[in-house]
Specification:
Blueprint lengths: L2 H6 L4 H13 L2 H4 L2 E11 L3 E2 L5 E17 L6 H15 L12 E6 L5 E17 L5 E3 L2 E5 L10 E5 L2 E5 L6
Antiparallel strand pairs: 1-3, 2-3, 3-5, 4-5, 5-7, 6-7, 8-9
Helix pairs in contact: 2-4
Length: 175
């Protein structure tokens, strides 16, 4: 996943992004029963200047809970929802390995022979990103800011001049 893609899904967007993906595959009458929220959160205060586009103010660490009541599991298969969640997490959460986050967990509680309640819990760690905004609500370092994703600019070429000798440097473009 690229840094630009990371930026577009940061600061609690993992929760809303996975929620939207689950809604996408659910029949409309089932999607109304999907609820999600954050719990057990911590703020890791590790600010980092990300260049002229913004700052990482802190890291959000939380458990995202997805709860779906009265899922008609013969119509909308549980394993399909779990596969959708697993694929979304693997494609969008590039921080899992870095922070050694645990595997997602789920429970299925049958209501009757036609429906069940399902709950999925996923631990996330993602940056809380801010950009300068003269009307922003966040006051920090003598400036005002807004919580918002931003694009990260990565140098593709650098010229280094040392003692009147210029050398080209091509930084690694790894995300």
């Amino acid at each position: 996943m690229s840094e630009t893609s990371d930026a577009l899904h940061a600061q609690g967007y993992f929760l809303s992004g996975l929620h939207s993906e689950l809604v996408r595959v659910l029949p409309p009458r089932c999607a109304r029963n999907l609820d999600s929220w954050m719990e057990g959160g911590t703020l890791r205060l590790e600010p980092k200047d990300m260049g002229i586009t913004g700052m990482d103010l802190a890291w959000l660490n939380y458990t995202a809970v997805f709860s779906l009541e009265s899922l008609p599991f013969r119509e909308c298969r549980t394993e399909t929802l779990l596969a959708v969640a697993a694929s979304w997490i693997q494609e969008h959460d590039s921080y899992r390995e870095r922070f050694e986050l645990p595997e997602p967990t789920y429970t299925v509680v049958p209501n009757d022979e036609h429906s069940a309640d399902i709950e999925l819990e996923v631990q996330f760690s993602e940056p809380l990103r801010i950009t300068q905004d003269p009307d922003g609500p966040v006051r920090w370092l003598g400036k005002t800011w807004t919580v918002a994703p931003f694009e990260l600019w990565v140098a593709e070429h650098i010229s280094l001049t040392v003692a009147n000798s210029t050398h080209s440097v091509h930084p690694s473009l790894k995300a």
